Records
---
Amino acid sequence: MSSPAGLDMGKRVVFTDLDGTLLDPFTYSYEESLPALRALRREGIPVVFCSAKTRLEILALRAELGVQDPFVAENGAAVFIPRGYFNLKLEERAQELNSLLVVELGARLEEFKWVIEEELVKLGCGYSLFSEMSAEEIAEETGLTVEMAGYAKAREYSETIKIDGGRKLAVKALRALESRGLSCTAGERFLTVTSGGVSKGRAVKVLQGLYEEVYGPLLTYGFGDSYNDLSMLREVDVPVLVKRPSGNWIEADLPVLLRVDEVGPRGFRRGVELVLGLKL
């Protein structure tokens, strides 16, 4: 398959959401995505995970899948780059963290967690914070294994909140937190809160700049399924939206957008097949 109409073929890079896109929205399985991941690896195309998940969650998944490319954690609050990956001097732009370099785009959780708690107390609603729940409690709420739930608890730049009292109260909480300058995204069951100005799109732009420094012109692809993926999809050349478990797509007003008629990892696999023209 040739490059999409009007786009020059450059170094190809894939940015992808995890839950509900690369991973099954209910079981978190990546089995259906494996043929696409193998094809991308075979072609030397980087796969950048761009997720609300924590650094530890993504590191565990990367190790299982053998993916060694940079990644974006906690909805864009931090970009993690394997040391030496770009062969660039990044000391002035990134901090060292074990075998990784990290570009922090958001404040650390301890700097704004008090604002979250203050606003939730004002609302008078019951709530649970992932950073304070046990791994067993998170596993029960999410269906994650206890080990992965422990990684999900390790929030560094964001907080995931379960609001008791239904959708209306969750919307009130979201608006109250946004009024304090925080960035909020609402999932099916939880709110995720970061410091203001954080988004997946901003993080993608940082990585695009680094790839361009090394490779020159890029051709970038983005895969997502939810509203917090839209900022990422707006930054790439070829945005791909997979179906939600409900059987439809989120509303997305993008000038160019491929909607894939499959859910989760099947949608990711089909999208890779369609837009990158790879034999799976």
---
Amino acid sequence: MKTKEDIIQWLYQNEEPYIKMADYIWENPEPAYREFKSSKYQADYLQKAGFKVKWDIGGINTAFVAEWGTGKPIIGFLGEFDALASLSQKVQTTPEPVVEGAPGHGCGHNLLGTAGLAAAVAIRYWLEENGMNGTVRYYGCPAEEVLAGKTFMARDGVFDDLDAALNFHPGSMNSVSKGSMVGLSDIKFRFHGRTAHAGGAPHLGRSALDAVELMNVGVNYLREHVTKYVRMHYTITHGGDLPNVVPAEAEVWYFLRAHKPEEMEELITRVRKIAEGAALMTETRVEEVFQGACSYVLSNHYLADLQYENMKLIGPIQFTDAEMKFARQLSDQYPKEYFTRAVESVKLDATDQHLLDEVKDKPLWGVNFPAFDQDRVDTGSTDVGDVSLITPLAVVFTSCGPVAVPGHNWGYTAAVGSSMGHKGMMHAARIMAATAYDLFTDPIHIQKARKEFMAARNGKPYKNPIPDSVQPPKYSNPERS
């Protein structure tokens, strides 16, 4: 491999091991912090390809960093491999789990990490064949679905010396991103009261459940008095054991979202006051359990433009008639407004409108779109944000499923286990590898990306949002025992 085109062709010619890897991870779905088989499969493959692998990053025994090469620049590829609870699904057009109640890859992380790994391996062989200096890294990142894996890894300093990072996420269309996403704090509030007979002596009890319910009422009133990018979600994880026993223990689990760190700090402070008020009203005691957090996303526009130029070089994804038929049958399982909303979300300049016109009546889109989210703040969250505040980072989305099928859904699990998912994954691998080629061969690209990054950070150092006292959960790893 000498040229960028050679790297792209290498990835066309060597798809099979990565399709096999993606399918293995899809067939062995594992939830956050327990991605034992998935992480080992990837790490073993990288070791055989000559990478040095370091485990237990950030105190997580499924997190690893694989590195090849020496010197600068250091380019990182981010990977994920965790599945979502209860989204097991066969590759078919009607809902039917492989295993009832089991996890499944409803967010396409079987493809996400594999694409980054494939790009890293291609660049590793290209560097070696051309005798070039430089370091390529693949980050095996667990627990993105609970929005803390990379944040714990960032606290360990493993991203600090990167010159740039490249990332991919499965989606329903091919596009680069210039938008942002909000940060998130994951906190449980446990209330401790006093039990009593609910019928015979309720006056002797102090209900922890009352405290939980009063806290939730207070938070719901708070919704009127927050900024537009704030979101607050909760679920009562424990509310007592029997109706005739005043609950001495109750717990509510909150996800708190806000865009910038100062907004998040203010939000947490206000929610804590509400919890304390609920405890005072019920004469209970409240305990806070801070579980994890992630920061907002800072997209690097220069890198995004670089990725888009490579998307145009590579061309669109060519989906077959059979894949289009499968996509349409899947789409028919969902309300038509899902498709309409997707079409309406694509806001293009007049010069690019023809791209949407080509596909807006098709269930599966293979064309490449430029960024159309530059001014958007998505109120979803990802721990990719913490990496983006440490080094210039770009995210590319590719078409791995039908436009009408939402993520975190049985239909998307089916899509990413099929050939349409494989095609989207390898499209992303080629885009990221081609962009890495640019970064390794011309230092001006890194200089411009970092100049934009430094201006956007405006001298603010990165502050990890997880307190030092909080550690990731530990699970026994049978694959490494």
